[in-house]
Amino acid sequence: YWISESIKDRLFEDIYELGNDLGRGATCRVNKCEHIGTRQCLAAKIIPKKVKKKIVKTEIGILLKLNHPNVVRLKEVYETHDEIILVLELVTGGELFDRIVTQGHYSEKDAAKAIKDVLTAVAYLHDNGVVHRDLKPENILYEDLTENSALKIADFGLSQIIGPDVMMHTVCGTPGYCAPEILKGQKYTKSIDVWSIGVITYILLSGYEPFFDNNERVMYKRIMKGDYNFESELWEDVSENAKDLIRKMLTIDSKKRITAAQALNHPWVRGTATKGVHME
Ligand code: ADP
Ligand code: MG
One of 117, 127, 134, 253 is an active-site residue; which one? Predict the structure, then answer.
Protein backbone atom coordinates (compact mmCIF):
# COMPACT_ATOMS: atom_id res chain seq x y z
CA TYR A 1 0.00 0.00 0.00
CA TRP A 2 1.96 2.93 -1.34
CA ILE A 3 0.77 5.58 1.08
CA SER A 4 1.79 3.80 4.27
CA GLU A 5 5.46 4.62 3.74
CA SER A 6 4.74 8.27 4.12
CA ILE A 7 2.48 7.98 7.13
CA LYS A 8 4.31 8.34 10.39
CA ASP A 9 3.62 5.83 13.13
CA ARG A 10 4.36 8.41 15.80
CA LEU A 11 1.60 10.64 17.07
CA PHE A 12 1.37 14.12 15.62
CA GLU A 13 0.81 15.47 19.13
CA ASP A 14 4.13 13.99 20.30
CA ILE A 15 6.05 15.84 17.62
CA TYR A 16 4.12 19.07 17.13
CA GLU A 17 2.28 21.67 19.18
CA LEU A 18 -0.85 22.80 17.41
CA GLY A 19 -1.19 26.58 17.13
CA ASN A 20 -3.76 29.07 15.94
CA ASP A 21 -6.06 28.89 12.93
CA LEU A 22 -4.54 29.81 9.55
CA GLY A 23 -7.50 29.19 7.34
CA ARG A 24 -10.37 26.98 6.43
CA GLY A 25 -11.33 25.25 3.24
CA ALA A 26 -14.32 23.30 2.05
CA THR A 27 -12.98 20.03 3.40
CA CYS A 28 -10.42 20.89 6.05
CA ARG A 29 -8.95 23.28 8.54
CA VAL A 30 -5.38 24.57 8.54
CA ASN A 31 -3.55 25.44 11.75
CA LYS A 32 -0.11 26.69 12.56
CA CYS A 33 2.04 24.09 14.30
CA GLU A 34 5.45 24.08 15.91
CA HIS A 35 7.95 21.22 15.87
CA ILE A 36 8.63 20.60 19.57
CA GLY A 37 12.22 19.48 18.98
CA THR A 38 13.40 22.22 16.63
CA ARG A 39 10.81 24.99 17.26
CA GLN A 40 10.32 25.17 13.49
CA CYS A 41 6.91 26.58 12.54
CA LEU A 42 4.87 24.74 9.95
CA ALA A 43 1.25 24.44 8.84
CA ALA A 44 -0.99 21.45 9.61
CA LYS A 45 -3.81 20.75 7.18
CA ILE A 46 -6.29 18.58 9.05
CA ILE A 47 -8.59 16.56 6.83
CA PRO A 48 -11.45 14.58 8.37
CA LYS A 49 -11.51 11.01 7.10
CA LYS A 50 -15.16 11.24 6.15
CA VAL A 51 -13.85 13.12 3.11
CA LYS A 52 -13.54 10.60 0.30
CA LYS A 53 -10.35 8.61 0.82
CA LYS A 54 -9.56 8.67 -2.85
CA ILE A 55 -9.25 12.45 -2.95
CA VAL A 56 -7.04 12.50 0.12
CA LYS A 57 -4.73 9.77 -1.18
CA THR A 58 -4.32 11.54 -4.49
CA GLU A 59 -3.55 14.79 -2.75
CA ILE A 60 -0.86 13.20 -0.58
CA GLY A 61 0.73 11.32 -3.46
CA ILE A 62 0.96 14.40 -5.61
CA LEU A 63 2.20 16.76 -2.93
CA LEU A 64 4.97 14.42 -1.76
CA LYS A 65 6.44 14.33 -5.24
CA LEU A 66 6.48 18.05 -5.79
CA ASN A 67 9.40 20.32 -5.02
CA HIS A 68 9.25 23.82 -6.44
CA PRO A 69 9.74 27.32 -4.96
CA ASN A 70 6.25 28.37 -6.10
CA VAL A 71 4.46 25.29 -4.78
CA VAL A 72 3.65 24.82 -1.06
CA ARG A 73 5.87 21.93 0.09
CA LEU A 74 4.48 18.90 1.91
CA LYS A 75 6.83 17.78 4.70
CA GLU A 76 5.10 14.93 6.54
CA VAL A 77 1.85 13.01 6.77
CA TYR A 78 0.20 11.78 9.97
CA GLU A 79 -2.88 9.68 10.40
CA THR A 80 -5.20 9.39 13.38
CA HIS A 81 -8.33 7.26 13.60
CA ASP A 82 -10.53 10.01 12.17
CA GLU A 83 -8.14 12.51 10.56
CA ILE A 84 -5.26 12.82 8.16
CA ILE A 85 -2.79 15.58 8.99
CA LEU A 86 -0.57 17.04 6.31
CA VAL A 87 2.41 18.97 7.65
CA LEU A 88 3.13 21.73 5.15
CA GLU A 89 5.67 24.46 4.73
CA LEU A 90 4.27 27.50 6.53
CA VAL A 91 3.57 30.52 4.42
CA THR A 92 2.78 33.73 6.24
CA GLY A 93 1.83 36.28 3.60
CA GLY A 94 -1.87 35.45 3.36
CA GLU A 95 -4.01 34.72 0.33
CA LEU A 96 -3.71 36.49 -3.02
CA PHE A 97 -7.46 36.96 -2.60
CA ASP A 98 -6.99 39.16 0.49
CA ARG A 99 -4.42 41.40 -1.20
CA ILE A 100 -6.74 41.91 -4.16
CA VAL A 101 -9.55 42.87 -1.77
CA THR A 102 -7.24 45.30 0.09
CA GLN A 103 -5.67 46.84 -3.01
CA GLY A 104 -8.72 46.90 -5.31
CA HIS A 105 -6.56 45.94 -8.24
CA TYR A 106 -2.88 45.59 -9.08
CA SER A 107 -0.57 47.70 -11.23
CA GLU A 108 0.41 45.93 -14.43
CA LYS A 109 3.94 45.40 -13.13
CA ASP A 110 2.70 43.79 -9.90
CA ALA A 111 0.07 41.73 -11.72
CA ALA A 112 2.64 40.45 -14.25
CA LYS A 113 4.98 39.47 -11.40
CA ALA A 114 2.19 37.58 -9.59
CA ILE A 115 1.02 35.84 -12.76
CA LYS A 116 4.60 34.87 -13.61
CA ASP A 117 4.88 33.05 -10.25
CA VAL A 118 1.55 31.30 -10.82
CA LEU A 119 2.46 30.30 -14.39
CA THR A 120 5.89 29.05 -13.29
CA ALA A 121 4.26 26.82 -10.67
CA VAL A 122 1.55 25.60 -13.03
CA ALA A 123 4.02 24.88 -15.87
CA TYR A 124 5.98 22.79 -13.33
CA LEU A 125 2.81 20.95 -12.25
CA HIS A 126 1.81 20.32 -15.88
CA ASP A 127 5.33 19.06 -16.67
CA ASN A 128 4.81 16.54 -13.88
CA GLY A 129 1.43 15.43 -15.19
CA VAL A 130 -0.45 17.24 -12.43
CA VAL A 131 -3.52 19.37 -13.06
CA HIS A 132 -4.49 21.66 -10.21
CA ARG A 133 -8.18 22.03 -11.18
CA ASP A 134 -9.04 24.54 -8.49
CA LEU A 135 -6.87 27.58 -9.19
CA LYS A 136 -8.34 30.68 -7.58
CA PRO A 137 -6.97 33.54 -5.47
CA GLU A 138 -7.83 31.68 -2.22
CA ASN A 139 -5.47 28.86 -3.18
CA ILE A 140 -2.57 31.13 -4.12
CA LEU A 141 -0.62 32.22 -1.04
CA TYR A 142 2.08 34.82 -0.41
CA GLU A 143 5.24 33.41 1.13
CA ASP A 144 5.54 36.37 3.52
CA LEU A 145 4.13 39.83 4.18
CA THR A 146 6.74 41.77 2.20
CA GLU A 147 5.66 43.69 -0.87
CA ASN A 148 7.91 41.60 -3.13
CA SER A 149 6.87 38.26 -1.67
CA ALA A 150 6.76 35.26 -3.98
CA LEU A 151 3.49 33.40 -4.48
CA LYS A 152 3.01 29.72 -3.78
CA ILE A 153 0.27 27.47 -5.03
CA ALA A 154 -1.60 25.57 -2.33
CA ASP A 155 -4.48 23.12 -2.11
CA PHE A 156 -4.17 20.22 -4.42
CA GLY A 157 -7.32 18.65 -3.03
CA LEU A 158 -8.92 18.42 -6.42
CA SER A 159 -5.94 17.65 -8.55
CA GLN A 160 -4.85 14.30 -9.82
CA ILE A 161 -2.09 12.79 -11.87
CA ILE A 162 -3.09 12.20 -15.46
CA GLY A 163 -1.46 9.79 -17.80
CA PRO A 164 -0.67 10.95 -21.35
CA ASP A 165 -3.98 9.79 -22.80
CA VAL A 166 -6.11 9.80 -19.69
CA MET A 167 -8.62 12.58 -19.68
CA MET A 168 -10.29 13.81 -16.58
CA HIS A 169 -13.97 14.06 -16.03
CA THR A 170 -15.04 15.70 -12.80
CA VAL A 171 -16.93 18.76 -11.70
CA CYS A 172 -15.15 22.03 -11.16
CA GLY A 173 -14.63 23.53 -7.72
CA THR A 174 -15.52 27.21 -8.13
CA PRO A 175 -17.77 28.36 -11.00
CA GLY A 176 -16.20 31.79 -11.62
CA TYR A 177 -12.82 30.24 -12.49
CA CYS A 178 -14.19 27.18 -14.26
CA ALA A 179 -13.30 26.53 -17.92
CA PRO A 180 -16.18 26.34 -20.45
CA GLU A 181 -15.40 22.75 -21.45
CA ILE A 182 -16.07 21.66 -17.85
CA LEU A 183 -19.44 23.43 -17.74
CA LYS A 184 -20.29 21.87 -21.11
CA GLY A 185 -19.55 18.43 -19.66
CA GLN A 186 -16.82 17.83 -22.19
CA LYS A 187 -13.58 16.04 -21.51
CA TYR A 188 -10.86 18.34 -20.40
CA THR A 189 -7.10 18.54 -19.87
CA LYS A 190 -4.52 20.62 -18.05
CA SER A 191 -5.52 23.59 -20.19
CA ILE A 192 -8.36 24.24 -17.69
CA ASP A 193 -5.73 25.64 -15.31
CA VAL A 194 -4.69 28.20 -17.92
CA TRP A 195 -8.30 29.36 -18.26
CA SER A 196 -8.42 29.88 -14.47
CA ILE A 197 -5.19 31.91 -14.63
CA GLY A 198 -6.82 34.01 -17.37
CA VAL A 199 -9.69 34.77 -14.99
CA ILE A 200 -7.23 35.57 -12.18
CA THR A 201 -5.23 37.90 -14.47
CA TYR A 202 -8.41 39.72 -15.44
CA ILE A 203 -9.34 40.15 -11.76
CA LEU A 204 -5.85 41.34 -10.78
CA LEU A 205 -5.94 44.10 -13.39
CA SER A 206 -9.51 45.26 -12.89
CA GLY A 207 -10.69 44.13 -9.46
CA TYR A 208 -13.74 42.36 -10.87
CA GLU A 209 -14.60 38.95 -12.35
CA PRO A 210 -14.86 38.69 -16.16
CA PHE A 211 -18.01 36.57 -16.24
CA PHE A 212 -19.68 37.64 -13.01
CA ASP A 213 -23.45 37.66 -12.73
CA ASN A 214 -25.61 37.49 -9.60
CA ASN A 215 -27.53 34.71 -11.32
CA GLU A 216 -25.26 31.67 -11.44
CA ARG A 217 -27.00 30.26 -14.52
CA VAL A 218 -26.39 33.48 -16.43
CA MET A 219 -22.76 33.37 -15.31
CA TYR A 220 -22.40 29.78 -16.60
CA LYS A 221 -23.80 30.85 -19.97
CA ARG A 222 -21.41 33.80 -20.14
CA ILE A 223 -18.45 31.49 -19.43
CA MET A 224 -19.54 28.96 -22.08
CA LYS A 225 -19.87 31.73 -24.66
CA GLY A 226 -16.64 33.40 -23.59
CA ASP A 227 -18.75 36.50 -23.01
CA TYR A 228 -16.43 39.01 -21.35
CA ASN A 229 -15.05 42.36 -22.43
CA PHE A 230 -12.57 45.13 -21.70
CA GLU A 231 -15.20 47.87 -22.00
CA SER A 232 -15.07 49.23 -18.45
CA GLU A 233 -13.03 52.43 -18.11
CA LEU A 234 -10.81 50.42 -15.73
CA TRP A 235 -9.33 48.81 -18.85
CA GLU A 236 -8.60 52.05 -20.70
CA ASP A 237 -5.04 52.36 -19.39
CA VAL A 238 -4.25 48.66 -19.47
CA SER A 239 -1.69 47.65 -22.12
CA GLU A 240 -2.66 45.79 -25.26
CA ASN A 241 -0.11 43.15 -24.27
CA ALA A 242 -2.02 42.36 -21.07
CA LYS A 243 -5.30 42.09 -22.97
CA ASP A 244 -3.63 39.94 -25.61
CA LEU A 245 -2.47 37.42 -22.99
CA ILE A 246 -5.91 37.38 -21.32
CA ARG A 247 -7.55 36.71 -24.71
CA LYS A 248 -5.12 33.86 -25.34
CA MET A 249 -5.83 32.32 -21.93
CA LEU A 250 -9.61 32.87 -22.11
CA THR A 251 -9.86 31.08 -25.47
CA ILE A 252 -12.94 28.84 -25.55
CA ASP A 253 -11.31 26.22 -27.77
CA SER A 254 -8.98 24.50 -25.31
CA LYS A 255 -6.77 23.20 -28.12
CA LYS A 256 -6.10 26.76 -29.28
CA ARG A 257 -5.66 28.09 -25.73
CA ILE A 258 -2.14 29.19 -24.83
CA THR A 259 -0.24 26.73 -22.59
CA ALA A 260 1.39 27.70 -19.28
CA ALA A 261 4.86 27.28 -20.81
CA GLN A 262 3.92 29.46 -23.80
CA ALA A 263 2.36 32.08 -21.53
CA LEU A 264 5.64 32.33 -19.59
CA ASN A 265 7.21 33.48 -22.84
CA HIS A 266 4.54 36.09 -23.54
CA PRO A 267 6.01 39.63 -23.60
CA TRP A 268 3.63 40.82 -20.87
CA VAL A 269 4.89 38.13 -18.48
CA ARG A 270 8.53 38.54 -19.49
CA GLY A 271 8.29 42.20 -18.65
CA THR A 272 9.12 43.29 -22.15
CA ALA A 273 5.64 44.59 -22.79
CA THR A 274 5.35 48.00 -24.36
CA LYS A 275 2.15 49.88 -23.81
CA GLY A 276 -0.02 50.00 -26.86
CA VAL A 277 2.06 47.56 -28.88
CA HIS A 278 0.17 44.52 -30.02
CA MET A 279 2.23 41.34 -30.07
CA GLU A 280 1.23 38.35 -32.14
P1 ADP B 1 -9.07 23.34 1.08
O2 ADP B 1 -8.60 22.15 0.33
O3 ADP B 1 -10.07 22.91 2.10
O4 ADP B 1 -9.54 24.48 0.24
P5 ADP B 1 -6.54 24.79 1.51
O6 ADP B 1 -5.32 23.97 1.35
O7 ADP B 1 -6.89 25.72 0.40
O8 ADP B 1 -7.79 23.87 1.91
O9 ADP B 1 -6.36 25.64 2.84
C10 ADP B 1 -7.38 26.49 3.29
C11 ADP B 1 -6.76 27.83 3.71
O12 ADP B 1 -5.77 27.64 4.75
C13 ADP B 1 -6.00 28.54 2.59
O14 ADP B 1 -6.84 29.30 1.78
C15 ADP B 1 -5.01 29.39 3.38
O16 ADP B 1 -5.61 30.59 3.82
C17 ADP B 1 -4.68 28.51 4.57
N18 ADP B 1 -3.46 27.72 4.32
C19 ADP B 1 -3.39 26.57 3.60
N20 ADP B 1 -2.13 26.09 3.54
C21 ADP B 1 -1.36 26.95 4.24
C22 ADP B 1 0.05 27.02 4.55
N23 ADP B 1 0.93 26.10 4.11
N24 ADP B 1 0.50 28.07 5.30
C25 ADP B 1 -0.39 29.01 5.71
N26 ADP B 1 -1.71 29.01 5.46
C27 ADP B 1 -2.22 27.99 4.73
MG1 MG C 1 -8.57 25.91 -0.83
Answer: 134
